[in-house]
């Protein structure tokens, strides 16, 4: 086994190994050669080579999303690490551990006109939980900075940045390491005990409690707690497709319930107590509702962070949600409240209207999603891109055995495909990405890698532009809108599929979609596949708007 000659590179590699971090995503470059040589030469590390740094960062994000352990990104100097930034911001807001190691020029080469050189120190300052700006020589102080960064990424669940300056020669190697880093054990900070007494008092005396779950990992809540919440007449639980939480009495299609509400309905739904947990909430309607019809109290339950999304936050309860709800239900008496039963009666009516409406509409985005949802196999990992795709997904009940993920930290269209492929690489289940045409084209370099599993599938809804802008307020059928908002195009994925070795299927109506979905999910996987569904550009928004009127 060979090792880089540069002691600082030796230190970084040995510390990563000692801390058990073995996922390394490398983007080719020269300045990072000492790290590339060291990581790729040691069989302990699983190394991936992804040329496009933006794709590489989201690929690593997808792996970390699934493993819940940090992925290490390694890049050369200059603009390379700036291309990591979208994924760094996503990791920051989605609480996903990510470690960026950027190779740099020595300090005396900065701002003198040297090539491929920018100001790299603290470049992610606004969205990084820790910045380790190393000095060129290996030292105990550098060792400690590296280990602090790793500890923060793990314990605070987010991105950190390690900037490592290397001087030439960069490619020299040794048979043995010449530097041994000073390893330290960093204890995970313990949370202070929470006194639940005052919270429980309000809980036990509140007949209208709304529990809203944002983005969560599958299996985060105990079955016992799920059943307690689902069978409590004073509690309405609202989930989203990204909540990965299921119970027959939970409201899983929020917009279907509340979009057609009048003033009296909203006042009747207005909670006395709002309890939130999990990450970002997709539904704009529930956010607008809770900001206008504020609860008397809002508690967010999360061990790390709380956002005042509804501008009514009274308490950030730093506790595991299971611990919190167990405390609330300990020795509590059931409250006789009509709150949950009223909502469930409405939902039953909405579901009938939902089904009836979908049976009678023409082929469109909405109809395509209905058919897709009926054909999704029972056990898979579902990755969904942002904009229209995630919003349509919100309108359907998803099988409990399907695990759902979406980059909702920053809600950008960049990186959805890269994230899905990274997640697929480490998932034990088949992975399906549902995406729109603009997001797919924007991240098409994601297909440029050697690691995509054979059972990876992309369902691509191509409506000829950014259909989400037709749904949002401000849509006008004119040249400015079509060119600069919707981004009209006549492109398809057939040539990309051929270039990157994907099976390619198409659908243009209900019959061809049914047939293509059957082939997509039943044929032997010899290589990954793309199913491109072509839908009308100019009727989708009308069909969706009419849906909310009639249900």
From TrEMBL:
One annotated GO molecular function is: 2-succinyl-5-enolpyruvyl-6-hydroxy-3-cyclohexene-1-carboxylic-acid synthase activity
Q: State its cofactor.
A: thiamine diphosphate; Mg(2+); Mn(2+)
Signal peptide limits: none
The domain of life for this entry's organism is Bacteria
Positions of the Menaquinone biosynthesis protein MenD middle domain: 236-358
Quaternary organization:
Homodimer.
Give all residue intervals belonging to the Thiamine pyrophosphate enzyme TPP-binding domain: 392-533
Q: Coding gene?
A: menD
Q: In which pathway does it act?
A: Quinol/quinone metabolism; 1,4-dihydroxy-2-naphthoate biosynthesis; 1,4-dihydroxy-2-naphthoate from chorismate: step 2/7; Quinol/quinone metabolism; menaquinone biosynthesis
- Protein name (Swiss-Prot/TrEMBL): 2-succinyl-5-enolpyruvyl-6-hydroxy-3-cyclohexene-1-carboxylate synthase
Return the broad EC class. transferase
Keyword list, A-Z: Magnesium, Manganese, Menaquinone biosynthesis, Metal-binding, Thiamine pyrophosphate, Transferase
Task: Tell me how the cofactor is bound.
Answer: Binds 1 thiamine pyrophosphate per subunit.
Its EC number is: 2.2.1.9
- Reaction catalyzed: isochorismate + 2-oxoglutarate + H(+) = 5-enolpyruvoyl-6-hydroxy-2-succinyl-cyclohex-3-ene-1-carboxylate + CO2
Species, as recorded: Paenimyroides ceti
Family to which this protein belongs: Belongs to the TPP enzyme family. MenD subfamily.
Indicate the segments forming the Thiamine pyrophosphate enzyme N-terminal TPP-binding domain, all copies. Answer: 8-114
What does the protein in this record do?
A: Catalyzes the thiamine diphosphate-dependent decarboxylation of 2-oxoglutarate and the subsequent addition of the resulting succinic semialdehyde-thiamine pyrophosphate anion to isochorismate to yield 2-succinyl-5-enolpyruvyl-6-hydroxy-3-cyclohexene-1-carboxylate (SEPHCHC).
Fetch the InterPro entries from UniProt. MenaQ_synth_MenD (IPR004433), MenD_middle (IPR032264), THDP-binding (IPR029061), Thiamin_PyroP_enz_TPP-bd_dom (IPR012001), TPP_enzyme_TPP-bd (IPR011766)
NCBIfam families annotated for this entry? menD
């Amino acid at each position: 086994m060979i090792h880089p000659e540069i002691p600082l590179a030796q230190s970084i590699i040995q510390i990563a190994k000692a801390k058990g971090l073995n996922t390394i995503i490398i983007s080719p470059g020269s300045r990072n050669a000492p790290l590339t040589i060291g990581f790729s030469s040691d069989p302990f590390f699983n190394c991936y080579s992804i040329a496009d740094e933006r794709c590489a960062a989201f690929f690593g994000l997808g792996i970390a999303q699934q493993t819940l352990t940090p992925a290490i990104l390694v890049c050369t100097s200059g603009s390379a690490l700036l291309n990591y930034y979208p994924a760094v911001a996503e990791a920051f807001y989605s609480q996903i551990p990510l470690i960026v190691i950027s190779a740099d020029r020595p300090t005396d080469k900065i701002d003198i006109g040297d090539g491929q050189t920018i100001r790299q120190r603290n470049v992610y300052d606004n969205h990084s939980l820790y910045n380790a700006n190393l000095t060129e020589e290996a030292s105990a102080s550098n060792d400690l900075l590296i280990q602090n960064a790793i500890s923060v990424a793990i314990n605070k669940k987010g991105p950190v940045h390690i900037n490592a300056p290397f001087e030439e020669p960069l490619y020299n190697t040794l048979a043995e390491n010449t530097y041994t880093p000073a390893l330290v054990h960093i204890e995970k900070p313990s949370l202070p005990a929470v006194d639940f007494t005052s919270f429980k008092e309000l809980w036990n005396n509140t007949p209208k409690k709304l529990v809203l779950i944002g983005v969560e990992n599958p299996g985060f809540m105990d079955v016992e707690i799920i059943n307690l919440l689902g069978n409590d007449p004073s509690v309405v639980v609202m989930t989203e497709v990204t909540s990965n939480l299921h119970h027959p009495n939970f409201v899983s299609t929020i917009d279907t319930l509340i979009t057609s509400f009048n003033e009296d309905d909203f006042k009747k739904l207005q909670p006395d107590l709002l309890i939130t947990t999990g990450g970002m909430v997709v539904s704009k309607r529930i956010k607008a509702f809770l900001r206008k019809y504020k609860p008397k109290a809002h508690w967010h339950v999360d061990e790390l962070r709380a956002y005042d999304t509804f501008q009514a936050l009274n308490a950030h309860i730093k506790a595991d949600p299971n611990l919190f709800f167990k405390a609330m239900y300990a020795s509590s008496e059931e409250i006789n409240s009509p709150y949950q039963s009223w909502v469930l009666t409405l939902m039953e009516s909405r579901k009938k209207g939902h089904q009836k409406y979908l049976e009678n509409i023409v082929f469109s985005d909405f109809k395509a999603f209905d058919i897709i949802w009926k054909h999704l196999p029972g056990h898979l990992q579902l990755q969904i891109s942002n904009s229209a795709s995630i919003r349509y997904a919100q309108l359907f009940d998803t099988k409990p055995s399907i695990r759902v993920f979406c980059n909702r930290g920053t809600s950008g269209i960049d990186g959805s495909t890269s994230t899905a492929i990274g997640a697929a690489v480490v998932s034990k289940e088949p992975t399906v990405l549902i995406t729109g045409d603009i997001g797919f084209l924007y991240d098409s370099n994601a297909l440029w890698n050697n690691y995509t599993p054979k059972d990876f599938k992309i369902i691509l809804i191509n409506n000829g532009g950014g259909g989400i802008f037709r749904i949002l307020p401000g849509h006008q059928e004119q040249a400015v809108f079509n060119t600069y908002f919707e981004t009209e195009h006549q492109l398809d994925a057939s040539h990309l599929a051929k270039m990157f070795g994907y099976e390619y299927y198409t659908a243009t109506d209900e019959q061809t979609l049914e047939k293509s979905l059957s082939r997509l999910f039943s044929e032997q996987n010899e290589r990954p596949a793309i199913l491109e569904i072509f839908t009308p550009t100019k009727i989708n928004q009308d069909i969706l708007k009419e849906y909310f009127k009639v249900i």
